Amino acid sequence: MPVRAPGLWHGGGVTDSSPRGGPLAVVRTVEFAGLGPAPFAGMLLADLGADVVCVERADGGSDLAQTPLLSRGRRSVVLDLKADAGREVARRLLAWADLLVEGFRPGVMERLGLGPEEAFAVNPRLVYGRVTGWGQDGPLARYAGHDLAYLALTGALAATARDPGDGTRPRPLAPGALLGDLGGGALQLVIGLLAALVETGRSGRGQVVDASVMDGTAYLTTFVHALRDVGFWNAPPGRNLLDSGAPFYEVYECADGRHLAVAALEDRFYSELLRLLDLDLAPEDPRHPCRRHDRATWPQAKAAWAALFATRSRDDWAQLLQGSDACVAPVLDLAEVPEHPHVAGRAAYRRIGDHLLPAPSPRFSRTPATPGAVPQRGNATAAVLAELGYSPAQIAQLRGAGTVG
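and the corresponding structure tokens:
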């Protein structure tokens, strides 16, 4: 099975296959296109310089095309994995790769003949990354799910509940797909892939990285459990220190209907907030520093702060309080974020094609991450097949049979 010359993690010399550079420029990845956390993980690896070949379905379009901006930086190959010849191409890719990313339901890759057993037979050093909602096993593993359901089962969704203040029961707030699919799923998968890759460099052996959104999100709630352990998260939802229960850690509506985030947790930061607001509070005022740790006063203090912040616009308050240790910031709409002076000063957004998007994070002093362009579907099929040892005649034959596109 002819494949490209071995790279760093295959025991040979360094082969820098990424034209963009980056800290992962010698790492080769095959990604099977899907939805949810898998494409974000592939994007992150590509942003960091990895040569990522994305295998897209031949039967009518790619799931990844539904989120084209997440497909940036890859080389796209279209394969019919239901055909024997298509699966043979995929196996050659597994022999070529250092990392694999797949986000199908448990058992799908095995049914295709591309599961871990088959993969390790052609590449014992492969780090085989899998990300699902519920995990590869367990009572719910074979059932469908989405981000919100995974958050619900981990306690993370309950931790978003807020006290409406009108006597009704607190209601959890859906935080989008940021916490589960991306934080608990994609980022945990990439951490696992890179950790396993380091171990492979020592042992010469690959392994399976089983990431699930449920597992990863549960892991992220460790901080909440730590706060519960010391008594900072034992009140009903929405009445704890960090879940908007405290009047000095809350979001307030301003006169223009926009909002201000106040996070003056420590005493010295709270004192700075009072100083900048020029508030000389009487001891009986629920906002007075001597009373701020008395939870019984928190509802009254929140009402007083709400009345104050409702007297001026968000930007008026931001101009007064930003650039200080008061720990206050305006709540920005997504369209406003790139124009904020600090965001712009950090160059935290970058032009990618026709879009202005968040720049890769974290930053590297010698090998900066550089996002690539969004590829056209199948743009690298012929080039990748040639790297895998297929002749022009064989490539034409595969195309003629509809095995590749």
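(Above: one complete record from the training split.) The chain is about 35% helix and 15% strand.
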